[in-house]
Amino acid sequence: MSGRILIDHFTTLDGVAQAPGGPNEDTDGEFVFGGWQAPLLDNTVGAQVDVGIQSMDALLLGRRTYDIFASYWPNQLDGPNAEIARKFDAIPKYVASRGTPQLGWRGSHLLDRDLHEELKTLREKHSDIHVIGSINFARTLLAESLFDQLNIWVYPIVVGPGKRLFTEDGPPASLELLSSEPASEKGAVLLRYGLRNAIPATGDMT
């Protein structure tokens, strides 16, 4: 069976996915709410994320997210998040970049320019390939229908301007809700989507 590509996405209620993890993660556009996810973390979301981490056998990342991960996770192998760090360290990391970056993290590989062929090869090697963060790269996967499942955690917070996965000039698509989870202790809701059609259907109410 061909492997799956899963996009894991944390978003505010108004769709902003920029810099959930920390104040200095991404300040582009003078973004002032970096780290917005931290006060809303709870045991339920932690358990949901952990299930995904334990099932993945490869990471697929954009260059910027890769740099953030590579500067942090290899230094956490003996810390409080050691289980996650060791998992990330052990599995292959595939990086999409227009440049030729030096990828020093163990098990890191630069994707070739032919994304369709590269992803076809990855599906043959792995079962659960997860895309975390990587907003620009995730947009490409959505635009070209190169994903199997979109996992969105929607948080009860509105921050205004910021980077979004779904932009005003983005491509249309019709998604299928595969499943949803009850709200977590602090109000985050996990929604799982698959791709139904590239173009949404339209009609009237009669």
Provide key terms for this protein.
alpha/beta, single chain, 24% strand, eight-stranded mixed beta sheet, 25% helix, 5 helices, 206 residues
Helix and strand element order = EHEHHEEHEHEEE
Distance, first to last CA: 43 Å
Helix tally equals 5
Note the main sheet.
8 strands, mixed
Overall radius of gyration? 17 Å
Give the CA-based shape.
globular
The secondary-structure class comes to: alpha/beta
- Approximately how much beta-strand content do the residues carry? 15-25%
Compute the average pLDDT.
Answer: 94
Number of strands: 8
Q: State the strand order across the main sheet.
A: 4-3-2-5-1-6-8-7
Q: Determine the fraction of residues in helical runs and give it as a percent range.
A: 25-40%
**Which spans of ≥5 residues are poorly predicted at pLDDT below 50?**
none
Report on this model:
The chain has 206 residues and is α/β, with parallel strands linked by helices. It is built from 5 helices and 8 strands. It has an 8-stranded mixed beta sheet with strand order 4-3-2-5-1-6-8-7. Strand 7 (174-180) and strand 8 (189-197) form a beta hairpin. The longest helix is centred in the first third of the chain and has 13 residues, at 43-55. It is globular and about 60 Å long. The N and C termini lie far apart (43 Å). The model has no long low-confidence stretch (mean pLDDT 94).
